[in-house]
Write a structure and sequence with these properties.
225 residues; 11 helices; five-stranded parallel sheet; single chain; 5 strands; alpha/beta
Length: 225
């Protein structure tokens, strides 16, 4: 299995693609994972063939026989510019579908930490930001024949359940913690394979308690593609 991640720091924090690779190799030992992720970048920037980054992204998409291409948008844009987000997803999905046999996965991100200055600066409540993200990603997945990886929905569920309280990095209140990145990898693994997430390998930085909660939640709440 060959999987390409395109996104930004919400993808590369805690080396999430490598964590995902260790998971997917339990199913396919020869699996390959690659990523293109620059801090703060948007999908529109990756879709812009007039720039070096855009050229590189489009070349990477078409130059290898990927099974899945995972797209992750800048964390705020689906809320503040849903039309721009939709257009960028459509452009990249069109390239993937026309030029490759890969399936597209949309990696839905999460609201900033509730009560944080980072969230307050958006002018949205925690619930509103989650809702806008959910609606934008769901619509984009439906409109483009893409698979939704509802990572943000599980962040909100775990947060509301009063279990793990540090899926989000405590230093900046919006990037994923090691546990948050592990949850993202579990969700993407589940939507691709449909196999249980119970017992998947886990970085040492994730506590046994967090591992147990994340594996159980992702295993029971995610419907495979």
């Amino acid at each position: 299995m060959q999987v390409l991640f395109i996104g930004n720091s919400f993808t590369y924090f805690n080396d999430m693609p490598y964590t995902f690779l260790s998971m997917i190799r339990t199913v396919d030992p020869s699996a390959r994972v690659d990523s293109l992720a620059y801090g703060g970048y948007s999908l529109a920037q990756y879709a812009d063939e007039e720039t070096e980054v855009g050229k590189n992204a489009l070349s990477k998409i078409v130059s290898y026989d990927w099974d899945y291409v995972v797209l992750q948008e800048q964390s705020l844009l689906p809320c503040t510019d849903p039309d721009g987000f939709a257009a960028a997803v459509k452009k990249l999905c069109t390239v993937v579908h026309r030029m490759t046999s890969a399936k597209v996965i949309l990696y839905q991100t999460w609201a900033y930490k509730n009560g944080s200055e980072k969230l307050t600066a958006t002018g949205m409540s925690y619930e509103e930001m989650n809702s806008r993200l959910r609606n934008a990603y769901r619509t984009a997945s439906q409109d483009n024949g893409a698979i939704l990886a509802p990572v943000g929905d599980l962040f909100a569920y775990v947060y509301a359940s009063d279990h793990i309280t540090h899926l989000i990095n405590r230093n900046d209140n919006y990037h994923p913690s090691a546990s948050g990145s592990y949850l993202a990898a579990c969700v993407i693994f589940k939507v691709i394979t449909g196999k249980t997430t119970i017992g998947l390998p886990c970085p040492a930085s994730v506590s046994l308690y967090n591992l147990s909660v994340i594996q159980k939640v992702s295993d029971t709440m995610i419907t495979p593609s």
